[in-house]
Amino acid sequence: MTYLDHAATTPMSPAAIAAMTDAMSTVGNASSLHSSGRRARRVVEEAREAVAEALDARPSEVIFTGGGTESDNLAVKGIYWARRDADARRRRILVSAVEHHAVLDTVTWLADHEGAELTWLEVDAAGRVHPETVRAALAEEPGDVALATVMWANNEVGTVNPVADIAAVCAEYDVPLHTDAVQAVGGVDVGFAASGAQALTVTGHKIGGPYGVGALLLDRSASCLPLLHGGGQEREVRSGTLDVPGIHAFATAVSAAVEHRRDSADHVTKLRDDLIAAVRAEVPDAVLNGLPAESPDRLPGIAHFTFPGCAGDSLLMLLDAKGIECSTGSACTAGVAEPSHVLTAMGADATAARGSLRFSLGHTSTRDDVDALARELRGVVDRARQAGLSGMRKQKQEA
Amino acid sequence: MRVLAAMSGGVDSAVAAARAVEAGHDVTGVHLALSAKPGTLRTGARGCCTIEDSRDARRAADILGIPFYVWDFAERFTEEVVETFVGEYAAGRTPNPCVTCNEKIKFEALLEKAIALGFDAVCTGHYARLSVVDGVPELRRSADESKDQSYVLASLTPEQLRHAMFPLGGSRKPDVRAEAAERGLAVAEKPDSHDICFIPDGDTKKFLESRLGERPGDLVDAETGAVLGKHTGVHGFTVGQRKGLGIDAPAPDGRPRYVLSLEPVSGTVKVGSSDELAVSRIDADRAIWPSQRPLDGPTECVVQVRAHGGMAPAVAEADGDEVRMSLREPLTGVAPGQVAVLYRPDADEGDVVLGSAKIAATA
Q: Boundaries of each Aminotransferase class V domain copy (chain A) (predicted)?
């Protein structure tokens, strides 16, 4: 099997599996006061310190959550509510048009139910948010902005945003910035303090850690109301018995991802460039989306292409039948491949957006994976082209 | 063969796919997302468009161990089925959207895509018997007469039928349910879908009103020409309809009145007694001969004008694309726009579909 969907999830590292199974075999609620509790607490706090160290944050800024979606929800809703409650005028959220659904659907919900007003930050043809765009949106009416949210790196096309520059603009206007760095950690250097963001989302399963555990890095000065009420375990911002094994394994994965980032990025970048070259050799009219291959502002592991005249779902099925697994980008709950909002925001028309595939590499990828794709791709694209875009709209009949 | 199984999430298509797998075919399951705004779990599962149905189909595919995908045919479905449905009603005709869906979506859009992607056939859970001998298809009624769906498949061309597979044609519904349970398919007890899948509340009149608005017109006595009342649009009526005419005064003879005809341009709905409703001649066009054999001279057959019921012995004669039918027993509620299907009776093996055509006029 050729797994080219590491951006969806990547295999857990042996170290993270060992850490998790180790912690699973010991009892202890990290909030209990006896020895077992203290032992569990120690594991959690060491994990907190490890995550903080790896991501240039203070331990007190690390709030463990149930993963990226929860962290995004907590940051966006929590900061919105806190800022609005402090000043009722602050209802505007600046949000990039290419965010993950965990942010997109959250801001849309706030607009529908909590009186938020949304200012969509446009992106350029490569999917990048420019600091000037943020400045223009802030300058409109700085006093009514609750927060800005701009992802560190895009999960579909792999474009990296100038987060520090954007945060600097936000800071001028005293507006907190949240950044979803789920896809960035392990791929590029991610430093919370240096970025200037007030909140940063990270999750385990994209970096060799377990599912269902992640963190929100939250600046001590940022006020944020909780989503989950209860024991107040995490700084009163997040309640719920701490998932000691998950947190332990998550921290192990974060540390390893950051420690080995440079080597891993070199390895993955090389494979990605080989993959891009192979795709271009087999299908000369394939269009690489996002920044040019050689740009430094590109995640190492992602290569996203539009294949003119093909439907993404046909390509995916045909490659799947050949044992090659990749993604059409975004999927809705029914499993229907919808035109990607990311590509649409980058200016692609709906047909091109539907004819796209994301190949993503990771720590277990090898040259064999690229070769397997190169072997099958041309035949698959030819077939998919015959099937065309049928089903999506009526084709010209009897032409 | 490489077979694409269309899986709605219901029991029939799940068992059909299972039988295709068992027959040794290389089967891939596909659920067609047809609704632009799929219903959620909360809005319940009726028809074949909800997210729950998609999950049911996926679980069935899991049990069968076959690959499964969801394909989005919503645009095409809206264009070909929903818009046609609305347009036909606006024109005073009574369309059957399931016929259109089979003809244009399952065995055109889906089949074309399947063939292009390297599949040999599309498999569905329809109840009809299909055999292909020397490349000539023969479509017959299902062994379960109460479930027979040959009517809604009779508009398929020979070419479409050559690439179709209906593994349930020889079975009875209760046996299919029992088989689903034996195979561990969770959909074994799932209720049958009814009505029109894109009108989840079943209120066709309300749906048409929301699409077409009010188009007021007169309700007229067919015999005297007297205006009996007003209505809000011909799309609210079907030929043969008795209830909901909105006429206050009873007929002079005290007999119930029925819709006899719809005139979309003037907006006139003509009503009269059931005698006048009886039809003994049907002219139809757009004939399709599933077995590639147009009628050869006047042919004794049975004509069916609705998906369920509406059958009469007849003599039919074809002239190119057109078919004229003289019924030996009159039928009521014969609506232009519906499909007339011609069968050659065969009590043992199932009636054979000779052809089908779209009803243009009645007398």
A: 2-373
User: Is the model's pLDDT at B118 over the cut of 50?
Assistant: yes
B11 is in an annotated binding site: yes
ipTM for the predicted complex: 0.86
**Percent of chain A whose predicted confidence (pLDDT) is above 70:** 95
Does the CB of A47 have a partner CB in chain B at under 8 Å?
no
- How many residues are present in chain A? 399
Is pLDDT at A396 greater than 60 in this prediction? no
DSSP 8-state secondary structure symbol assigned to residue B351: P
d(CA B57, CA A93): 39
All domains of chain A in start order, with CATH: 14-259 (3.40.640.10), 261-387 (3.90.1150.10)
Angle, vertex CA B59, rays to CA B54 and CA B65, nearest 5: 125
Q: What are the Cα distances from residue B141, in Å, to B104, B128, B151, B166, B296?
A: 21, 5, 8, 11, 22
Most confident of A248-257, B220-229, B258-267: A248-257
Domains of chain B: 2-125+167-189 (3.40.50.620), 214-276 (2.30.30.280)
> Cβ separation of A336 and B118 shorter than 8 Å?
no
- Residue B166: is its pLDDT beyond 80? yes
Calculate mean pLDDT across residues A60-85. Answer: 98
Residue B272, annotated ligand binder? no
Q: How far is residue A155's CA from residue A150's CA, in Å, rounded to a whole number?
A: 12
